[in-house]
Every structure is written in structure tokens, then in C-alpha cells.
Amino acid sequence: MPAATTPVQARVSYGTRARLAEHLAAEKNARRALIAERFPVDPEAPAAQRARVRAEARAYLQGMRQRGELCDSVDVLMMHAVRAELGERGWDHPWPPPPPTAPHSGRWPGSLDGAWPEVIPIRLPAELAERLQAACANVSMPAIVEIRALRDANPGPITPADGVLWERYQALAAKVITPGDVLRAAVARALPHD
Questions:
Q1: CA atoms 33, 39, 45, 49: torsion sign
Q2: 59 burial via Cβ count (<10 Å: 0-12, 13-18, 19+)
Q3: pTM (predicted TM-score)
Q4: b/e burial code for range 170-187 (CB count within 10 A of at least 16 → b)
Q5: In this structure, how many other beta carbons lie within 10 angstroms of the beta carbon of residue 143?
Q6: Helix, strand, coil in percent for the chain, rounding step 5
Q7: pLDDT tens per residue, range 162-182
Q8: CB-based contact 98:138 (threshold 8 Å)
């Protein structure tokens, strides 16, 4: 039985989906070449033998995917990239559940980024998606609490003309790390750099 997954979306800049598709096409070509070389199937062989070779090939590829040696789907590529991103941030460990007042979806208080024209749908292992959400919520909650209090005390738009208030808001907003921020960083990590 496959492990449970959670659907998430990475909202990214224009052109990212095309770069991702190009990268995945290269991975799929490498997979086909590897299978042809390492697990050739003789079309004249008995059906049971052909089935055994194909089963060995599937098991071999699955091991490569689990180790991150073959990332021929968005889900596999992003699973490894998100784990690496969490690890680099020091967040790849168990977290307490998000506080009840933590944002769960939609725009987070203090989130400064808004318009991302492309969406990459991803299915992360459920435990990884929960870790991502819990890490972002727990790390960001102190700033979110302060942002909410600041907004309650200062209703209406806060603009650069507000001087110190604007600077305080910007400083707090910089401490809010959303799952979208981490997913965008993971996408950037996963794609080859020119």
C-alpha cells in the first residue's frame, strides 16, 4: 500500500514550470536509457521471464527514487528538495502541532509576496507536508502574533509614508516564513542552475 500523501501547491515565477518540465524530461530519458541497458527485455523470452525482469527494474527504480538518485516525477523531485530545504534551515525534526491560531492555508499575516503566476501541484508524503506546515507555523507564530497586534492597533493600510510603523511591519513580516516560501526555495533547489 502506498504511503499517504498530501496535495500542496508551489506558486512560482513565470517560466518555472517549463524549466521543471525540461528537467523531468531529461530524468525520464535517463531512466529509459538505464532500463534499456541494465534490464533488457527479450521480446522472444517467455512471459514469466519478461515479467520478472520488469519487476526487477521497477524495484531497482523505486530504490533509486527513495535515495534521490532518480527524480523522474514532480512528487519525487520535490520530496527530496523539500527535505533538503528543511534540513538546511535546521527544521527537519519533529515539531509540535501548529498553534490553534496559526494560519493553515491562504495568505499568512505578514506575507509580502502575492502574485505568483504559475502553480506546480505536488503530492508530498503526509508526514513531510505536516512537518513543513508545523515548522513554518511554529517559527512564524511570534511574528504573526505581533503583526496581528500591530494591525489591530493601526487599522488601515500601512505604507512607507508611515515611517517607523512601516519599518516595524516590514521587520516582523520578514520573520514570517510560509510553506509557500519553503516550497519556492525547494523548487529553486531542485532545478539545475545555469
A1: negative
A2: exposed
A3: 0.88
A4: eebbeebbbbbbbbbbbb
A5: 19
A6: 60, 10, 35
A7: 999 999 999 999 999 999 999
A8: yes
